[in-house]
Amino acid sequence: MPLSERPVVHEPSIFPYLFSGKLLLRNEIPLDEPTFQHQLSTKNFTPIVSMKRKNFTYQCQRCGNQQRSLFAQMPCASCGTTHAYCRNCIEMGRVMECEPLYYWSGEEPHWPPHETPCSWEGELTLVQQRAAERITRAINTEEKELLIWAVCGSGKTEMLFPGITEALHLGKRVCIATPRADVVRELLPRIQKAFRSIEVQGLYGGSEKKEGTAQIIIATTHQLLRYKSAFDVLIIDEIDAFPFHADPTLPYVTNRAKSNTSTTIYLTATPRKNLHKQIMQKKLVHIFVPIRFHGHPLPVPKLKMSFSLKRELVNKKVPQAFMKWIKNRENPDRQLLIFVPTIQLAETMKDKVADCLLNVGLIKAIEKAQAVHASDPNREEKVQLFRDRKIDTLLTTTILERGVTFPSVDVAILDTGHEVFDEAALVQIAGRAGRSPDDPTGEVIFFHDGKTEAMMRAVQSIRQMNKRGSYEMYCLWCNTQIIPEVSWGNLFLLTKPKWLCQACEGELEILQGKRCRCCSRVDEDELCSDCKWWDRHFSSDPITFNFSVFSYNLQMQDMIAKWKYRGDYHLGNAFKPIFRRSFHDTFSFLKKDAIAVPIPLSKERLLERGFNQAKMLADFLPVETEEIITRTHTEKQSKKTRRERIGTKNPFVITKSINKPVILVDDIYTTGTTLRHAGVLLQGHGCPKVYAYTLIRG
Q: Residue 328 burial (CB < 10 Å; 0-12/13-18/19+)?
């Protein structure tokens, strides 16, 4: 809009809110010329060159463009010379070489802190709450970046509410940036309803309000071209979506829009390779949400082959495979969302699909089927009609692949093998189905004339997310739910069980530092005093060495008491991962030649406890286990003094000879008497080497 047509602002008190954090052309500043010149002379506005010459080309200081083909020369009516302008960001107003950009350098606006700004009364699920707490902590501690990787339909918007609340409580300014205007239009009423006492503005091409003066801004990423050092919290929704991932301008302007102490929250359901790489290299902190908010799995697409698909579409015919499916849908009451690869196909197929659906009685009027695409001037209205169920069938392009929610739809893609449908797009499109707890399923059908890698990867990815989402893990000690962190290693594999939460795992003390080479006792000497005593009493110690994993601290004592003496068998799994890992690190030189022999319990003790804890530990190991030693009943070792243990007679009997190395397995090494009794027997029956592997060094 020309400056002469813009409403002129006269009240200086609002200038900081109207202009601060923005990078504007002169015709975007709604001040009359005397007022503007006064603000300029008092250094409330600072001009900067709009283009810099760089490496035989230019760099636009608004959008960052350096591509030579996106600059051109034109005769300028203002200065009477021919010079460059930027073609890359011309949709936002032309940047000319002779015209500066201006940023506000006067008084900073004061964004007020709010005590209880959130009016949302909903309740987060446990998994959502964990993500929300992580977002809140990042904002509170001014972390630079945090990625929220959450499956389609997980409730990402609601997860943001506690973090936005914390930001407003701290007097921060928040921007939610998304690549598409449809998403801004959907988010705006939801955020306004959740924060009724806070001004919220939506900025996109064609939006009614353009001022951008609110404490919460929801904007397309292109609108950030006009911002500089504006936002304390920048939430970038759908960071993997077109055009954000494909346009280097958008990352450039989003970085510029951040304040010096800003926190950036990235949201995605389908991270691309660059994000996977940063996750793998631990360069990007993230949290993963594998479960939809209603707890049901993502619908898995079905692939429908149609050899005549392309020919039918070229001839403007509704594919027979599609019609066969539509007549036999599981729930014909659902609305139908049909994706096609091009605008032209959406327009040409709309009437054909409507006629077919009308003829078979699936719609009652021809206007109940519509098409919508990026060039449709009635796009916003049609999407709302579909949301209000006033349209039954909607043909669309990838503009509706993400960021929009319809409560009960079946989804079909015609010509799924088209290059526009990459893996991320297919996963997002599948995510349109089953969004409501009242109808959490929905069919997703990929019609194709030949499978593509993108189709197969999309199906694999959805199945993997469902596996991870359904595999709920709880700490065996404190019963807190464990949500695993994502790594490159577990991205396409079923998550391995994690038996302890991070807090409880941290209470266990792994033996570290110098230790006795024979018994694993923490000691500065190579051989501790206990082992020196054994050396004096054995001409040859039957145990080559013992390796123990944990110390016997208070946490371990409590866990052993519950596992071993009170009979919580399942709790023993808490030790499995590190017990296996330490075994591999310590005994890999034996390869698979050795066998594990658990220290036995007497029959009486086994009946009392119900299981042998040493046998359970031995079964964790990747070697053969044999129970070739039995035990006579004696008083519990835990009831004896150290002197009594050392003086105990050998209680074991061996049932067969063995000519392989043996690793004796037990839960705790105290004096070593038990292990040495077993070792003497084994050596006397042909065993060439005896080692010991114990969970704890007492």
A: exposed
Torsion on CA atoms 154, 155, 159, 164, rounded to nearest 10: 150
CB atoms within 10 A of CB 610: 8
pLDDT in tens, 403-444: 889 989 999 999 999 999 999 999 999 999 999 988 998 999
- For 106, 189, 235, the CA distances from 288, given in Å and listed in that order, are 42, 27, 16
**C-alpha distance from residue 473 to each of 87, 125, 483, 675 (Å):** 53, 15, 7, 36
487-530 confidence digits (pLDDT tens): 444 544 444 667 888 889 999 999 999 999 999 999 988 889 88
3-state SS of 329-346? CCCCCCEEEEECCCHHHH
- Say if residue 652 is exposed, middle or buried (CB neighbours under 10 Å; 0-12, 13-18, 19+): middle
Give φ, ψ of 471 to 5 degrees: -95, 80
Q: Count Cβ neighbours within 10 Å for each residue of 61-91 and write b for 16 or more, e otherwise.
A: bbbbbbeeebbeeeebeeeeeeebbbbbbee
Biggest distance spanned by C-alpha atoms of the chain: 109
Pairing state of beta strands 82-86 and 95-96? antiparallel
**What are 72's strand-pairing partners?**
85
**Could you tell me how many residues make up the chain?**
698
State how beta strands 286-289 and 231-236 pair.
unpaired
- Angle among Cα 333, 339, 314 to the nearest 5 degrees reads 115
How much is the CA Rg of the chain, to the nearest whole Å? 34
Distance CA 571, CA 555 (A): 13
Helix (H) or strand (E) holding 661: none
Three-class DSSP category at 35: helix
SS percent in the chain: helix, strand, coil, step 5: 35, 20, 45
Q: Give the integer Cα–Cα distance in Å for 695 and 698.
A: 10
Q: Which amino acid is at 280?
A: M
Cα–Cα distance, 328 to 412 (Å, whole number): 14
C-alpha span between 106 and 39 (Å, rounded): 9
- Does residue 109 contact residue 17 with C-beta atoms inside 8 Å? yes
663 with 597: CB under 8 angstroms? yes
CA gap 519, 693 in Å, rounded: 10
Q: Residue 320's closest CA among 637, 117, 328, 476?
A: 328
Closest CA to 546 of 525, 520, 527: 520
Distance separating alpha carbons of residues 5 and 612, to the nearest angstrom: 86
In which residue are the tokens 């630079």 written? 144
Number of Cβ within a 10 Å radius of residue 335: 19
DSSP summary character for residue 522: B
Mapping DSSP to helix (H, G, I), strand (E, B) and coil, where does residue 682 land?
Answer: helix
- How confident is residue 7, by pLDDT bands cut at 50, 70 and 90? low
* d(C-alpha 207, C-alpha 184), whole Å: 10
pLDDT band at 1 (very low <50, low <70, confident <90, very high): very low
Q: Are 595 and 607 in contact (CB under 8 A)?
A: no
Comparing CA positions, the residue from 404, 400, 382, 399 lying closest to residue 391 is 382
Residue 458: HSE in the Cβ half-sphere, 13 Å Cα cutoff: 27
Q: What is the pLDDT of residue 4?
A: 37
269: β partners: none
Q: CA 1, CA 93: separation in Å to the nearest integer? A: 9
Residue pair 302/445 in contact (Cβ under 8 Å)? The answer is yes
Distance set, CA 119 to CA 161, 196, 197 (Å):
10, 6, 8
